[in-house]
Request: fold
Amino acid sequence: MSPWLSRLTRLGRALEAVSEWSGRAVSWLALALVLLVSYDVGMRYLFNRGSVGLQELEWHLFALLFLLGAAYALRHDAHVRVDVLHHRMSREQRALVDLIGGLIVLLPVCALIVYSSWPFVHNAFVYGEGSPDPGGLPHRFLLKAAIPAGFLLLALQGVADIIRNLAVVLGADRGVRR
Reply:
């Protein structure tokens, strides 16, 4: 393997480690969400007590789980894929398709969403946006900040995938694992 490809492969592994770490950290939100929903349902049906703040926190955790967990899903190829021809291709052909898709679809879309969501987050912070519902949660900018953060993590994993697929296409993928 050439020195530049070897350096790129090391970079790809480092980026995959970021996705792995963030995904494992975010996975704890699933447990928190289950406990919160169980508590909320129990309070509503057993004691006739509901809370707008708890219900909003449920959908906030759900949104964080998906936004910040997308890179982990991509890392482990656990995302939704329309697999009409992909499974019939050779490993090199799949890598080429994924390489091109990452370059012309994934990275540009991630860049567009990060770029276009930033003013959305900034305005929520500047204006102190909170829930419009009585008893709702304040600091809506924290949830909105997960949009660019999640797509930045997804883009980093996309770069790692592009590097790995490039190594496969170039036939220099010995020791490069998924």
Q: What stands out?
A: Helices lie at 3-47, 52-75, 91-126, 140-144, 146-169. Residues 73 and 79 are 6 Å apart (CA to CA). The chain is about 75% helix and 0% strand. The mean pLDDT is 92.
